[in-house]
C-alpha cells in the first residue's frame, strides 16, 4: 500500500515538532513540511531536511493557484500554525478543497471548550465553519492543556529551567476543577493514529494524558520532589474581573499582542477553572470521541511521570526559541 501523503504546517513549532516526530517514527507517511518564505533559511528548517522531510516553501496567504498546485496529490493536511496566526489558515482550507485533499486537521490542539467562551476557540470555530461549508473532510483534534504549562515552580528553583518566562501557576477557586491535560510530546502519538483511522473522519477527537485538579497537581509536585509548596488560591471573581478589564483594553487596541495574549490566557483560566469546561464529561456532551478509547494500546505519559522528568532535568522549556507570530 502506498504511504499517505501528509502536508504539515508548523513543523518547527511546539505542537508541530511533536506531530512530526511521531509521523517520522511510524514510517507510514510521506511527509512534506510547508514553510513560509521568510523562514526558509532558518536552521530549524534545514534540520527538517536532514530528517528526510520534504520542504515546500509557500505563502499560505499568497495566490490561490500556487497553493492549489502545491497541495495537489496531498491526502492529509495538518496545521499546527500557532494561536496568533490561525486565521491565516483560511486560504489553505480553500486550496485544500480545490486540490482534492481528503482530510484537513486544522490548528485546534487546545482544551475542550464550547463556542462563545474564548476568543482563541471562537477563531478556531471560524475555520471549522469554513471547512464544513466547503465540504472538506476533517478531523478536529483537541488535547487539553499542556503539562509543560501546568506545573508550579519548586521553591528550590530545580524546575525553573523548564518554565515558560513569566508563567504563574496559582490555584483557582477551591483548586478542585479537574482538567484534561497532556504532555506536548504525546500530542503527535495521538495525531499519527487519528489521521490513519477512517473512524475519525469528520469527527471531533480528544487525546489526553491525565485528568487532574490543581490540588492534585500541587500534591504530586510535592510528593515527587519532596519539597513543600505555598498554595495561593485566586478567587473566581478576580479572574472574571481581570478578563473584563483586559477585554476593554483590547477592544481599544486590537493589534496589541501583549493584550491579546493576556485575554487569551485569562479566558483559558475562566474556561478551565471557573466554568470547568475542559473535562471528559463535557467533551462527550460536545460530541468528541475519546482517543484513549479508540487506541487503548497508546500509553501517554502521566503527569506524575512528567514531574519525574521535570525534576531530572529532562523537560524542554516551551517556546525556548521564542514565540512564532
Ligand atoms: N493545549 C495547550 O495547552 C496549548 C498551548 C499552546 C498552544 N496551543 C495550541 O497549539 C496550536 C499550535 O501552537 P504552538 O504554540 O504549538 O505553535 P508554535 O510553537 O507557535 O509554532 C507555530 C508554527 O507555525 C509556523 N507558522 C506561523 N505562522 C506561519 C505562517 N503564516 N505560515 C507558515 N507557517 C507559520 C511557525 O513557523 P515559523 O514562525 O518558523 O515560520 C511554527 O512552525 C495552536 O492551535 C494553539 O492554540 C495549545
Automatic annotation (TrEMBL):
A UniProt-annotated Pfam family: NmrA
Entry keyword annotation includes Transcription regulation: no
Keyword flag Manganese: no
Domain of life (superkingdom): Eukaryota
InterPro entries cross-referenced by the UniProt entry: NAD(P)-bd_dom_sf (IPR036291), NmrA-like (IPR008030), NmrA-type/Isoflavone_red_sf (IPR050608), PCBER-like (IPR045312)
Keywords of this entry: NADP, Oxidoreductase
Annotated NmrA-like domain residues: 3-306
GO molecular function: oxidoreductase activity
PANTHER family: ISOFLAVONE REDUCTASE HOMOLOG P3-RELATED (PTHR43349:SF93), PINORESINOL REDUCTASE-RELATED (PTHR43349)
Protein name, entry field: Related to Isoflavone reductase homolog P3
Amino acid at each position: 500500500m502506498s504511504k499517505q501523503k501528509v502536508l504539515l504546517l508548523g513543523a518547527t513549532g511546539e505542537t508541530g515538532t511533536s506531530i512530526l516526530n511521531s509521523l517520522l517514527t511510524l514510517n507510514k507517511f510521506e511527509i512534506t513540511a510547508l514553510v513560509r518564505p521568510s523562514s526558509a533559511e532558518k536552521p530549524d528548517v534545514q534540520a527538517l531536511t536532514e530528517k528526510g522531510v520534504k520542504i515546500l516553501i509557500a505563502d499560505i496567504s499568497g495566490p490561490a493557484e500556487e497553493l492549489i498546485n502545491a497541495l495537489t496529490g496531498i491526502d492529509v493536511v495538518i496545521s499546527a500554525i500557532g494561536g496568533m496566526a490561525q486565521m491565516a489558515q483560511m486560504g489553505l482550507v480553500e486550496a485544500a478543497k480545490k486540490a482534492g485533499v481528503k482530510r484537513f486537521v486544522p490548528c485546534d490542539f487546545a482544551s475542550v471548550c464550547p463556542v462563545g467562551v474564548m476568543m482563541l476557540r471562537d477563531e478556531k470555530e471560524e475555520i471549522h465553519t469554513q471547512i464544513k461549508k466547503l465540504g472538506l473532510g476533517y478531523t478536529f483534534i483537541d488535547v487539553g492543556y499542556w503539562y509543560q504549562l501546568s506545573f508550579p515552580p519548586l521553591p528550590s528553583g530545580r524546575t525553573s529551567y523548564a518554565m515558560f518566562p513569566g508563567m504563574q501557576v496559582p490555584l483557582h477557586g477551591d483548586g478542585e476543577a479537574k482538567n484534561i491535560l497532556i504532555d506536548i510530546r504525546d500530542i503527535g502519538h495521538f495525531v499519527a493514529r487519528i489521521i490513519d483511522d477512517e473512524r475519525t473522519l469528520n469527527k471531533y477527537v480528544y487525546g489526553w494524558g491525565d485528568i487532574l485538579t490543581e490540588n492534585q497537581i500541587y500534591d504530586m509536585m510535592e510528593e515527587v520532589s519532596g519539597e513543600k509548596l505555598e498554595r495561593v488560591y485566586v478567587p473566581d471573581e478576580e479572574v472574571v474581573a481581570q478578563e473584563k478589564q483586559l477585554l476593554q483594553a483590547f477592544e481599544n487596541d486590537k493589534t496589541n499582542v501583549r493584550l491579546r495574549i493576556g485575554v487569551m490566557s485569562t479566558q483559558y483560566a475562566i474556561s478551565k477553572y471557573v466554568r470547568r469546561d475542559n473535562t471528559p464529561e463535557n467533551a462527550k456532551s460536545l460530541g468528541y470521541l475519546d482517543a484513549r478509547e479508540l487506541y487503548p494500546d497508546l500509553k501517554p505519559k502521566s503527569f506524575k511521570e512528567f514531574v519525574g522528568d521535570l525534576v531530572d532535568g529532562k523537560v524542554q522549556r516551551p517556546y525556548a526559541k521564542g514565540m512564532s507570530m
